[in-house]
Amino acid sequence: VAAAFTKYKYERKRRLEAAQEKGGARAWTNVFANGGVAAFLAVMEGLLLIAFPLGNFDIFLAGFIGTVATATADTLATEIGLLYPGEPRLITNPLKKVPPGTSGGITPLGELAILMSGLMIGGIASALYQLNIINVAGGVNGVLIKLFEYLGAEIPVWVKLIAIGVFAGFVGSTADSLIGATLQSLFKCNVCGKITEKEKHCGQITTHIKGYLAIDNNIVNLVSTAVGALAGFLLYLMFF
Domain limits of the chain? Predict the structure, then answer.
């Protein structure tokens, strides 16, 4: 899905200088930044289940859903948000307009994409649960469970899985925008004056003007997916 939207109206995005390089193909660093946390959680749960077959490690599944929802939401918010006809607003200063593709820039279309991404990933997890492909034992007896029990209500597991996707996807992608707007390194082209994330532009070395040199887009993605996983953990502890 993310790859399809990356290539959708690619030429228009390229003219904005906001398109993914190499025709939309992702480098291994980008793949690791977006999927490394999810892979780690999957491996950890597998190893723990091998070591403790009767253990309950569903919290790793919740974190996995959270990190995948974050990565998907971030990608779709960027790719779909670039099609927004108006100018993005900076997440740390909504009154400030920024060029399309600016780190930390948000649009109504991008925020809608975040919501839809969370629903999609949570929905896939829910469908897998309904098909008995994944199992969620629960048993934490979180605070929200106690509240709904007090109210005489019960929330189906499939609804909880969708909630994790939506909540974690929103939290993680919002963290991505905040880090991008405040800590990510930005450069200025000495030829055309454009603000960019690239260290070279117009064939020349750019000038560092903001953020930390060590924090590029891949680091931002890696941290934000970890935040998405933590959001998944939190909702699991409250919901199951």
Answer: 2-16+26-184+213-239
